[in-house]
Amino acid sequence: MLKIRNNISRRASWVEGYSFSGSDEIPIIPQFQAVIPDNIVPFSKRKTIAPSKRHRWGIHFYEDDKYFSSFLKNPEYYLNELKQFAVVFSPDCSIYRDMPRVEQVANIFLSRAVTCLLQKNGIPICINVRWGDERSYEPAIGSLQKGGVYAISTHGCIKDPEDRLFFKKGLAILVETIEPTVLLVHGSNAADIFAPFKKRVSLLFYDPRIKQTRNRGKGDQNPTLI
User: Fold this and answer.
1) C-alpha distances in angstroms, 118 versus 7, 76, 85?
2) Could you write out the DSSP letters of every residue in 162-196?
3) What is the enclosing helix (H) or strand (E) of 27?
4) pTM > 0.85
5) Are 132 and 96 in contact (CB under 8 A)?
6) What is the DSSP letter of 29?
7) Cys staple from 97: which of 19, 126, 133, 203, with CB 3.0 to 4.6 Å?
8) How far apart (Å, rounded) are the C-alpha atoms in residues 204 and 164?
């Protein structure tokens, strides 16, 4: 019981000083200076990037949750290491359409809370926006500040036709209500998804098919702008 109380207290300290949005009380992260990295690498592969290159690379969490579960449990342990990178995307905690809403909201809250901790410790951050079905649109998107740079990923969530539909709906809400200036997109630049928004937001694509570990941080993979 003491361990549970300590964990709750630690997480409360991560969001101390922040305002909250809506009945779900998702932390509102103020506007921040955007950093657009030359390349991005999964958290679990971060050590493959040469130290001399890290200032040009961003870290993302678009991988199975098990590969960054240790980070979610104790993000403070990794702070000094993460400061070596250009930017850190907020954790991409899984949000599935068949999850109970309370679980979807809990994962959105956890992702934003960790992001607050990173920001408070001077680490450049980019908010990753992840939604499932319509129940998660409000907590995932309604808590965001207008304008600015955000990150999203299509990886693993647009192959199924129904998943693709919910992704399109969420993206439309994101663009229409938040009006981001730039979206950093990890994954496919599928025309049926992104073409309607090309005139409203700059889209930068990072190809997840590039084998980061093969180059061990020696090569460059500049994002594709459309």
Assistant:
1) 17, 9, 12
2) HHHHHHHHHHHHHHHHH--SEEEEES---HHHHGG
3) strand 26-28
4) yes
5) yes
6) P
7) 133
8) 20
Note the pLDDT tens digit of each residue in 56-68.
Answer: 999 999 999 999 9
pLDDT value, residue 210: 53
- The tokens 């969490």 sit on which residue? 61
Tokens 């954790």 label which residue?
A: 91
pLDDT at 218: 43
Instruction: Please report where in the chains the tokens 């990794």 appear, as a residue.
Output: 78
User: Any residues with CB less than 8 A from the CB of 105 and at least 6 apart, and which?
Assistant: 24, 26, 136, 139
For residue 91, give its domain range. Answer: 2-225
User: How high is the mean pLDDT of the chain?
Assistant: 89
Provide the token pair at 62.
Answer: 């678009």
Number of domains in the chain: 1
Could you tell me the mean pLDDT of each successive run of 10 residues in the chain, 226 residues long?
55 93 94 88 96 96 96 97 98 94 96 97 96 94 95 90 94 96 94 94 86 43 57
How long a stretch of residues is the chain? 226
Nearest Cα to Cα of residue 106 among 25, 5, 2: 25
